[in-house]
């Protein structure tokens, strides 16, 4: 017998028939002798719909009230799944964030889980009851409802798995695993049997939304075994223990698996694209100490995350252009902050462009191989794709390009690194 947390995403929960199918998958897992808790997302499209209502009410809405509104989507699906399970003859009970409780900080709309008191939950699971928990939501120190940021149900699931000391956290979604790149963009993407926490973390953070970034860092920190697999399976599909999904594993574990299979480690594990960044350029800034601090200090104070930065000094004029990227959702605030400080910073013009995309290649194999970035630049150049900015880390290279060239760039790189499957 094992203790398993199962998470079902929005597409898997969209409508009566799909929830009924989810109920059957959960029932089978329990019938196999496991203790089961389920974490659910809102129906696909529902959170977007609710966010829109908030924007219509007030573009500068109160994040605490936003949380009250957007958390409701998961409340609906958790109650419905409990009903469907009961209809199948299972004992099932929903547990809202405040009932578990899932305690978070008070950063509304992007709260962090601080603690889960799982005693009552575990007692209920041990009695044979299936716990159904709405993802994405928690409760603040002041007792108000919070949400964990978009895609946050993955993090809820991993946090619950850590709290109940689950043997595994199965993330059921609308694809049957983690692929070398988004299979909806590249038909030749290959499913990965295993991917390391570190690589998954990097892939998620550069745009592979199959798992929320925070869920991966939490799983890594708490040592939760995470598997990504499809919820679109037939009633006679094999049990989750034998389904060929993608297992997130440690570096050592992967090395052992590959040694056993006599396999060489791939240089590149995955490619991701992110269209949610915008580029800003400030021209003709004085080349003196403190100039850059005057730009980024106020942005940091406003909690705006700057990602790529390039500064180019024109030696002859003693002036420099500074280019950087911020999330599109923070573009308007960034522009207004910099406009207010035009004289203090001392720039000539501010140029903004939200039609950009960041393309990243990720792989631990990069640590021991040179030439990964050069291959990327050559492959893009051969297709006439212009690179506007570059950043690298130990296991990642990212470039900023024109948004219209996103799909082409991902496909070209997938081929250039010899990742294409059948
Ligand atoms: P859920 O609603 O189940 O949380 P998401 O839409 O958040 O599902 O995540 C699943 C989607 O992630 C897939 O439909 C796929 O288009 C996208 N995706 C992006 N990159 C990858 C990748 N490398 N492997 C698999 N899916 C990916
Ligand atoms: N429903 C939330 C969202 O769409 C959380 C989730 O599905 O993970 O972002
Ligand atoms: Mg998701």
Question: What does this protein look like?
Answer:
The structure is a single chain. By secondary structure, the protein is of the alpha/beta class. It is globular, with a radius of gyration of 23 Å. The protein has helices at 16-31, 46-57, 63-70, 72-87, 119-126, 153-163, 197-205, 213-222, 251-260, 291-301, 331-340, 342-345, 372-382, 406-416; strands spanning 3-8, 35-40, 92-94, 102-104, 113-116, 130-134, 137-139, 145-147, 168-173, 194-196, 226-230, 246-249, 270-274, 277-286, 309-314, 319-327, 350-353, 356-362, 389-393, 396-402. Strands 3-6-2-1-9-11-12-10 form an 8-stranded mixed beta sheet, sandwiched between helices. Strands 13-18-20-19 form a 4-stranded antiparallel beta sheet, sandwiched between helices. The model has no long low-confidence stretch (mean pLDDT 93). α1 crosses α4 (72-87), α7 runs antiparallel to α8 (213-222) and α13 packs across α14. The longest helix is centred in the first third of the chain and has 16 residues, at 16-31. It starts with a strand and ends in a 6-residue tail after the last helix. The protein has 14 helices and 20 strands. It folds into 2 domains: 3-175 and 210-260, 3-Layer(aba) Sandwich (Carbamate kinase); 264-422, VC0802-like, CATH 3.30.2130.10. The chain is 35% helix and 25% strand. The structure holds adenosine-5'-diphosphate, aspartic acid and magnesium ion. Residues 9-11, 41, 151, 173-175, 178-179, 181-184, 208-210, 270 line the site of adenosine-5'-diphosphate.
């Amino acid at each position: 017998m094992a203790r398993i947390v199962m998470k079902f995403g929005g597409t898997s929960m969209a409508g009566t028939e799909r929830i009924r199918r989810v109920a059957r998958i959960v029932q089978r897992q329990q019938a196999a002798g496991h203790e089961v808790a389920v974490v659910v997302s809102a129906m696909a499209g529902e959170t977007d719909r609710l966010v829109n209502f908030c924007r219509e009410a007030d573009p500068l809405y109160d994040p605490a009230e936003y949380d009250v509104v957007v958390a409701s989507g998961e409340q609906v699906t958790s109650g419905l799944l409990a009903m469907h399970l009961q209809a199948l003859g299972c004992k099932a009970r929903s547990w809202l964030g405040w009932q578990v409780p899932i305690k978070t900080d008070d950063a509304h709309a992007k709260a962090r889980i601080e603690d889960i008191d799982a005693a009552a939950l575990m007692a209920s699971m041990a009695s044979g009851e299936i716990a159904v928990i709405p993802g994405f939501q928690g409760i603040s120190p002041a007792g108000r409802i919070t949400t964990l940021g978009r895609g946050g149900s993955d993090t809820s699931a991993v946090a619950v798995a850590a709290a109940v000391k689950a043997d595994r956290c199965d993330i059921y979604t609308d694809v049957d695993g983690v692929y070398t790149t988004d299979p909806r963009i590249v038909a030749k993407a290959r499913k990965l049997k295993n991917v390391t926490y570190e690589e998954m973390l990097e892939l998620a953070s550069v745009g592979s939304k199959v798992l929320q970034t925070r869920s991966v860092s939490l799983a890594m920190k708490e040592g939760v075994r995470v598997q990504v697999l499809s919820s679109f399976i037939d009633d006679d599909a094999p049990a989750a223990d034998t389904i060929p999904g993608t297992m997130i594993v440690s570096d050592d574990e992967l090395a052992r698996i590959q040694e056993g299979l006599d396999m060489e480690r791939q240089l590149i594990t995955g490619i991701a694209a992110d269209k949610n960044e915008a580029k800003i350029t400030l021209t003709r800034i004085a080349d003196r100490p403190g100039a850059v601090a005057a730009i980024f200090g106020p942005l940091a104070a406003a909690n705006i995350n700057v990602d790529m930065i390039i500064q180019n000094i024109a030696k002859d004029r003693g002036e420099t252009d500074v280019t950087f990227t911020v999330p599109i959702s923070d573009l308007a605030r960034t522009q207004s902050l910099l406009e207010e400080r035009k004289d203090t910073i001392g720039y000539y013009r501010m140029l903004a462009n939200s039609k950009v995309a960041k393309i990243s290649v990720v792989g631990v194999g990069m640590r021991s191989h040179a030439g990964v970035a050069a291959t990327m630049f050559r492959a893009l150049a051969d297709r006439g794709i212009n690179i506007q900015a570059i950043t690298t880390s130990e296991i990642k290279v990212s470039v900023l390009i024109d948004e219209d060239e996103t799909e082409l760039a991902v496909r070209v790189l997938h081929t250039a690194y010899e990742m294409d499957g059948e």
